[in-house]
């Protein structure tokens, strides 16, 4: 009897030990802690294809001259007699990039190489090459540059599928922050599909992996060692808030950047609005998805196909339209001349419409870019987010996403989160209306915002 009891105790102890080992480290409260992932393999692999980018830009700037002293004492009336003394200066910048094939093609941000008169690329082994700009797309902030490897074997990055990225998964950001060559930081995907007012096709991945000046253009890598994004932006006022362009967006435009040096986008010719819960209820929709047409441009592909104001686009080329931002991007990547099928809801009935996509006119392309006056005023705007519409009931206007401290907009009292309804008494219904209104502003003119 005693022998049986001892065996039973020994067996119980063995099971308890086995459970302790299998569960891993145990805290004082008895909960388990998971081990952090090992990033050493990714760090070694990325070292082969991440590059430093050095750019030089020649800029012309007026330096202080005699007229400035006269203006100080006597006002601007002496200005015309002293035209100023423009001089040329060299401005140097740093950035990052990554090799995508053995021929020497490198992806980076457009803002890293924009306006550069000289581009140099430094590889992991210290070798430096002159690079040329092959193509650039300001709307997505993506640029393609190229070096001539001259027989040198280059290691290319593996491009992943950013559509499969999940919130919460581990990622690594690689680049050259503040000129500190080859630095890696780790974090998670904090959010997807972020709109931050950088351009018309905002669809950023948000991460808390540290991204600093100099990281721009570097890769965001998943735990399989695949590039899923291009590091591009940070929120200066916050910590752990960085943004990356989804790599699928780069893959979509890469062929055009290689062959044309720019991106020619498809054009439908409609103005659209987000479907709010209230609109969904009024249209008899179960979910607030799709995009409602608020205006059809005369003579546009949409007009020729018979699309009308009030139609709700729910599907484009077999892809369901979940939110307002998806449709412009899908249309833009469609080659002009392609006939596509769209599903629309009209008067409560589902219809299929065939549309021959056109080429985006220069005027529309210009509207997708921040205007010069907008930049000078020091503010950035975006369409009103659905959550703001839900809270305020405001459906038309533009949403202020950024105001530069000390800028005219800041001094005028405009702050991030404001909604602009009118510019110089002109009603603003959309981002296009705002940019048209800004284009009418003359230098030195006082601008009235409501």
How would you describe this protein?
By secondary structure, this protein is of the alpha+beta class. The chain has 4 domains: 45-147, Thrombin, subunit H, CATH 2.40.10; 158-259, Thrombin, subunit H; 266-361, Roll (Pdz3 Domain), CATH 2.30.42; 369-439, PDZ domain (Pdz3 Domain), CATH 2.30.42. The protein is 24% helix and 34% strand. It has helices at residues 2-23, 40-49, 66-74, 110-113, 247-259, 277-283, 301-305, 326-332, 362-367, 372-377, 386-392, 408-411, 431-439; strands at 50-63, 85-99, 105-109, 118-122, 128-137, 142-147, 158-159, 170-175, 183-194, 204-207, 219-222, 226-234, 242-246, 266-267, 270-274, 291-296, 312-316, 319-320, 339-346, 349-356, 358-359, 379-382, 398-403, 419-420, 422-423, 426-427. A 6-stranded antiparallel barrel has the order 1-2-3-6-5-4. The longest helix is centred in the N-terminal third of the chain and has 22 residues, at 2-23.
